[in-house]
Amino acid sequence: xxxxQKGFSLIELLIVVAIILIIxxxxxxxxxxxxxTASQANAAATMRSxxxxxxxxxxxxxxxxxxxxxxxGPSPCTxxxxxxxxxxxxxxxxxxxxxxxxxxxxxTQTTTPAGFTLVASPAASNGAVRSxxxxxxxxxxxxxxxxxxxxxxxxxx
Length: 157
Fold this sequence. Notes:
alpha+beta; 6-stranded antiparallel sheet; 2 helices; 6 strands; elongated
């Protein structure tokens, strides 16, 4: 009398593992691309938020701040020239020190003309290829594969 086998044979398990690996190989590039697109969209949105905060600061206290950190403030926040309360403090402090959302941020106050420049470049491990540039004109510029400058095509406000 033959004994009934219970369970799966080795070949059946290998076929299932192979199918899973094929599906993963197809899905992984799409996942990485979606992550890079989301990171770029977040950088552009952060750039717009900082632009709004800088415009509010310039309206309230003529001129632009020496540092992005001035745009935030601890909660509860009382607006002043040193804590404008125009931007979430966690973003203001993180961007002030250079890295936020896998982007390296560089803010510079300019005196001639009175204004600023803000550049967001992808960090080495980011995988995103788009850099962003903003100045006192308020238009966000971008460049693919290079550091953005004022001459790059505009995204718009």
